[in-house]
Design goal:
15% of the residues are buried. The protein starts with 16 loop residues before the first strand and ends in a 21-residue tail after the last helix. The longest helix is centred in the middle third of the chain and has 7 residues, at 39-45. A hairpin with a 6-residue loop joins strand 1 and strand 2. It is an alpha+beta fold and 66 residues long. It has a two-stranded antiparallel ribbon with strand order 1-2. It contains 1 helix and 4 strands; from the N terminus they run ββββα. It has one helix at residues 39-45; strands spanning 17-18, 25-26, 31-32, 37-38. It has a domain at 1-46. It is elongated, with a radius of gyration of 15 Å.
Length: 66
């Protein structure tokens, strides 16, 4: 017997991914493969684009933490 879980955002499509930030199970439509975040976390925290080593952050700090 196969058990499938619905996306926790749209509740209509099959969840195929788990957000690496919040752990929410989401479908392909609600997951950003570049960042590994669901669309909720992606909109709150942004993507996985980090500055290159030695590149200055916009406000002058050298690290950000969530």
């Amino acid at each position: 017997m196969s058990v499938s879980t619905l996306c926790e955002i749209c509740e209509s499509r099959t969840a195929e991914y788990s957000c690496s930030h919040c752990g929410q199970l989401v479908c392909e439509r609600h997951f950003d493969t570049d960042s590994g975040y669901c669309v909720d976390c992606q909109s709150r925290f942004g993507g996985g684009d980090q500055p290159e080593q030695g590149e200055q952050m916009p406000d002058g700090v050298d690290t950000y933490e969530l």
